[in-house]
Amino acid sequence: MDLGIAGKWALVCGASKGLGFGCAQALVREGVHVVLVARGEDALNAAVEKLLAEPSRPADTAVQHVAADITTVEGRAKVFAKRSDFDIVITNAGGPPPGDFRSWDRDAWIKAVDANMLTPIELIKACVDNMAARGFGRIVNITSSAVKAPIDILGLSNGARSGLTGFVAGLARTSKLASANVTINNLLPGAFDTDRLKGTMAGAAQKSGKPIEEVMEARKGTIPAKRFGTPEEFGAACAFLCSQQAGYITGQNILTDGGAYPGTY
What we know:
By secondary structure, the chain is an alpha/beta fold. The protein is built from 9 helices and 7 strands. It has a 7-stranded parallel β-sheet with strand order 3-2-1-4-5-6-7, sandwiched between helices.
């Protein structure tokens, strides 16, 4: 299927690896020009090389990058100095650490809200009006399946990402945006084969005294699909939400979790 977005410009955050890279890869394959953002210069350079070598990338598709912390005012300024406007924005920031809520002080909460709620809102604010004026815009926020099924030790993430979810639910349904072919949706990943998951599994293995392979197999056993997702298939879902064909989908929270969420709604 031709997604109809070749030649568009996309900002992809947290794009040097994992789910962010999967999204950038899927967009590049569709002929979308991308600006990758992440904090690590070396990892970004490696990501750019991979995308430029992508066999499905149309030859004239640009791949640019900015090494910056998108959760800071300075980082966002650096990104928009590179390119001031985008047709597609993929917001993504690393989740805050797990723990017991009794140990989180105000600074921990502010840092979580800043990264996982306020930063996406700032990026939306910077781009959405120009999208509406052009009659096309796609914003996809990478949040978490924990928004639908909260995990007790991920309270910082549960709270901050749920705040973003509520904000998007209202904004996406405003007639000024929806009638102008500007959509805002959230992609909620479950367990994907990423460095973050491996780190979490390593911590669980150390705590339990079990081999990490055993811990990972047990985790897979809790998922109806009996496997972890791949960044490539997550990216494909993201690319579809950015497509011309997805113009009637907005304000939605779309789970990509292999069937792990047990609810009806």
